[in-house]
Amino acid sequence: MKRLLPLFLCIASAGFGQKFENVAPTPPMGWNSWNTFQAGINEALIEQTAEAMIANGMRDAGYVYVNLDDTWSAKERDANGDLAGDPVKFPHGMKALGDFLHARGFKFGIYNCAGSLTCAGFPGERGHEFQDARRYASWGVDYLKEDWCYTGTANAPETYRIMRDALREAGRPMVLSLCEWGQSRPWLWGGPVAELWRTTEDIYPSYNRVKQILDLQVGLAGYAGPGHWNDPDMLEVGNGSLTFAESRAHFSLWCMLAAPLIAGNDVRHMTPEVRDILTNREVIALDQDPLGREGFRFRVDSKNHVEIWAKELSGGEWGICLLNNGSTPAAYTVDWQDITFLSGQYYHLRDLWAKAPVGRTPALYTTTIAPHDVALLRLKPGY
Ligand code: GLA
Fold first, then answer.
1. Out of 82, 86, 99, 202, which one is annotated catalytic?
2. Does the beta carbon of 70 lie inside 6 Å of ligand 1?
3. Which helix (H) or strand (E) holds 230?
4. pLDDT tens digits for the chain (383 residues)?
């Protein structure tokens, strides 16, 4: 026992078994390279993206993480077994990229995998966790997305706890973003391990996929809160076949879910309409509300194809989102007496896309919602 005591003290003082506190009190916001660029990333693209996010108002609206996804690294570790950036894609190295981002008010995110290889076949972290965490810290990394390819029979909670401990020992606070696609129900064990965890397999830019992922969030709201978030995957706003209405519905619903808001489009070349979706501060405020409650699906009205989602906010306020999942316009009336959790209180209503007041309860609220679009309201107590 005497001989074990110093070992115990040493482990305890290194902070094993604890993630960093307060690195994500609200859902992280930023940009990630994967959804648009996959393997086509390089230093110039990332720097241009950061400059664009300053010019288009994204950084100041809260999108501070600039995250490299898979394919940033060299194909092999160096002679010391250390990771290095791809020398052709990132000629000035990863520390220089981190410095560039920090000098402009951003935080630096990177990607790797808990397995022996990343999903795209680059060196993974398995067996190198502590060495790699020290490397990331030396580059000034602030956010690590940790994927789950090539993990064989590894146990997800145990494996991810190793990376949590490695980051802790490296000493630089980082957001840890787990990406095991919801397979081992990370909402049950992820809270003490990481700041966020994917709940599903990958998103892609079609309304049907966005809706499938939305449906898979039902029942998970209670597992999220400040510092530990369900991640329904990165945003596809402005991408693929999503119409303007579908992009804004996707964005509204991710905000209702208190989802991490990680844009996945080419922000250097987006339309003003897409920019206005991503930078609507009143909608972002639903996501970033300090109470940290995830929204829930209150009702599905299958006759009209309208779903009602609700999110409790601080100060007794509520976000209410009506989604028209049908393919024709839906004329819809909300009788506030039916929204049982609001009873006993009067509210002023504000339409967050029109940025205008739209009445007060208990008067009925009537609107027409375009196909795959939303009506998004904020309710503030008052007569
Ligand atoms: C997995 C993840 C994606 C992306 C790719 C990269 O599929 O779920 O989000 O990171 O790997 O290879």
1. 202
2. yes
3. strand 229-231
4. 445 555 444 444 444 579 999 999 999 999 999 999 999 999 999 999 999 999 999 999 999 999 999 999 999 999 999 999 999 999 999 999 999 999 999 999 999 999 999 999 999 999 999 999 999 999 999 999 999 999 999 999 999 999 999 999 999 999 999 999 999 999 999 999 999 999 999 999 999 999 999 999 999 999 999 999 999 999 999 999 999 999 999 999 999 999 999 999 999 999 999 999 999 999 999 999 999 999 999 999 999 999 999 999 999 999 999 999 999 999 999 999 999 999 779 999 999 999 999 999 999 999 999 999 999 999 999 98
Are the beta carbons of 207 and 251 closer than 8 angstroms?
no
Which one-letter DSSP state was computed for residue 73? Answer: B
Q: How far apart are CA 319 and CA 310, in angstroms?
A: 6
Q: Which residue has the tokens 């990394």?
A: 141
- The closest of 256, 257, 235 to 246, measured between CA atoms, is 235
Q: What is the dihedral of CA 159, 162, 167, 171, to 10 degrees?
A: 170
Structure tokens at 276: 């206005």
d(CA 177, ligand 1 centre) in Å: 12
* Ligand 1 touching residue 179 (CB < 6 A): yes
Instruction: Return d(Cα 293, Cα 298) in angstroms, integer.
Output: 14
H or E element at residue 145: strand 143-147
Q: Classify each residue of 38-50 as buried b or exposed e, where b means 16 or more C-beta atoms within 10 Å of its C-beta.
A: eeebbbebbbebb
281-287-291-297 Cα dihedral, nearest 10 degrees: 130
